[in-house]
Amino acid sequence: MADAKDITVIIDGIKVQVPANTYVWDACRKIGMEIPNFCYIPGLRAFGACRMCVVEVTGRKGWELVTSCSTPATDGMEVRTINERIWQQRNMVMEALDTDHPVDCPICEANGDCRLQDYGYEYGVTGTDTRRPKIVRPAERLSPAIDLDRDRCVVCGRCVRECDEVVGATALAFVERGVETLIDAPFGKSLLETPCVSCGQCIEVCPVGALSSRINLEMEHHWWQRKTETTCEYCSVGCTIKLGATRNKVFEVRSDDALGLNDGVTCVKGRFAQDVINSNSRLGTPLIRRDGKLVSATWDEALDLVASKLNANKGAVGVVASAKLTNEENYLLQKVTRLGLGTNNIDYDARASEAPALEVLKKMLGYPAQTNNLIDTRQKAGCILSIGDSVYETHPVYGYQLQRMIRLMDKKLIMIHPRYTKMCDWATLWLAPHAGTEEILVNGLARVILDAGLVDQAFLDSRTENSAGYLDTLRAHDFSLEEVSRKTGVPTRDVVAAAYLYATGGTSTGPEKLPKPTHPSNLPASQNGSKGDAKGNVTSRDASGDATQTAGSPVPPVVQRPEGGYPPSTVIFPASAPYTLTSGAATALTNLALATGNIGRPGAGVNPLVGDANCLGANDMGCQPDYFPGYRPVNADNAREMEEMWTVDPDRASPEVPAEPGIGFYGMLAAADQGDLKAMWVVGSNPVLAEGEADSDRVRKALQKLDFLVAQDIFANETAELADVILPAASFAEKEGTFTNTERRVQRVRQAIEPVGASKPDYAII
Fold first, then answer.
1. Taking the CA of residue 203 as centre, how many other CA atoms within 13 Å lie in the half-sphere pointing to its CB?
2. Are 352 and 665 spatial neighbours (Cβ–Cβ below 8 Å)?
3. What pTM was computed for the model?
4. Span 703-737, pLDDT tens digits
5. What's 639's DSSP letter?
6. DSSP β-bridge partners for residue 61
7. Could you say which DSSP state residue 99 is in?
8. N or C: which end of the chain has fewer CB within 10 A?
9. Cα 147 from Cα 130, distance rounded (Å)
10. For 673-711, how does the pLDDT look when each residue is reduced to its tens digit (9 = 90+)?
11. Could you tell me which of 654, 126, 148, 199 has the C-alpha nearest to residue 393?
């Protein structure tokens, strides 16, 4: 059954139902009919620049020509997508574009993937229009990453609008006027002098070969490339990308409109940092240290040596996993560690910075991960409270999506960070507390919300435990408005405004914009001011509901929650280094969400963003010293059930896995330094330059004290230089598996090329 807001459009005799205000172009696409265009991208605001997408629709004067990308469909509208009149209009547009376009298709980067080529053939462009001399414009290197050949540009404006609306960088603009109009950085600057983030989205959306990149110097025809849809290996957003490969090399990284949760958008690392796949510095063969030097060896020699050495040090081995491995590889690694090496000493370097926040969520909410998905938080939240490092830098594509939501959908953003970050550009409020006082500030917000009567008491009573003790703690003097402002350095007016914004889903910044206060007798006892604070100051209220206090700051008037509640608010924060929240701050954020009922509904929640591509997957798979897969504690009563599932030979009992937790990543380094750990197996990590480890020399000395060190990676990094054996692994483009992104979405990793040299996928080595 169609939605009540749906309308019916008749396209070339075919009835199609679409939401009201859908553009005709999108309605046509719904039934698989692609209308030619240069300037339109679904999701961007209507522009109607190229005039290529003309169709006929029924209007007041009969059949009228309109641009389908900027004309909203109406109920009962009839649409013709092609006839002689439409064909002539499109032919005229193509002849005009071809007047200045160079005939250099054989050497153009877009050859075979160019709309001008496709439409020129379809609409019979001859290239013989000589009504005026051709305008020749020079090619220019706009930045080290991006080139612009203005001769090829059709001035569709896609790049300008994508940079502005989607990325929020505003690094490109239209300059000059009329026939001289062209694309450039504003005021003739280099892109390096603009807010450009080198994401390459302008290259992605260019319909011709005007914008290109010189980062990947090798080129290959598009029709020779096999496109493989896979998941980016960098941050934990989990962008879906397409690797274009042939001759066992990756030549380009692209995405598609509406592909994946990133909607076809990529960041600078996702697009340009995949050149590591083809790097000549890749390890191509196993290496064994002989007479102090690393020399080539066969796989049999290397694996036999590793197996014998690790087996000889059972129980005194430490294994370092990686957030770059797939779920399947991490599961196998922890299984071999526990079952084969007889130890729970398995961890990965990034977990240390994420553990405090994730442990809080596990304890308070039952699972150590986001409570809501990324699409949910960016589309349905009325207010976003972002604390910690700017997601625009740590998780770029999600940052792009948030800024678009804030700018174009009028959502509210509260940014909490001691220093300015890019997200502050779009923040409704930027609170800059003294470093280390975030917990105090968040509890101060909760105190304002409590005093204003904006606590969702019904939610607390039905869905939480120990809420009364929490509310009593907030009433203490330490969280009074003046005390919080004094300790954090945030002005009281900003604390109040942020509290109201969060509690009301972005609908209000203060009590004057809220519904009329209700009589205190209609409110729960915990909200009617009947309890005193830690200093004995008792709150009383007159018949009108206005609040007064015998001492301290005035309490905002208690208000009645609107029917249906306020719009949802969400909390987001990067959980990984360099800026990590304490467990106390994470607890305060979770309590804040619970107190306002912002848990368990779309657009709300507490959402830590883990660092690397598969950090959450590594946790889920049991790459932790104190948890088996699925977060079962190793010392739980039912933990031994794992051993039964891991039995290798049904006729022979498997070795018993230790019942006590192992040691974590930094504990392994300390144990190696003290001589208690004899061997380490490092897979896809680099402890010498580990996240959060400032003293690399200390780590080197600890690793050198080991009897045996094996490094398994795609490059000979600083840790591998100290190893007794180096095992060459395959990149993510050379194996199959899955990653679990920060929102718990399990995504496919697909093989695009064969492993380079003699390298093997990590699962094959394990």
1. 26
2. yes
3. 0.89
4. 999 999 999 999 999 999 999 999 999 999 999 99
5. T
6. none
7. H
8. N
9. 29
10. 999 999 999 999 999 988 666 688 999 999 999 999 999
11. 199
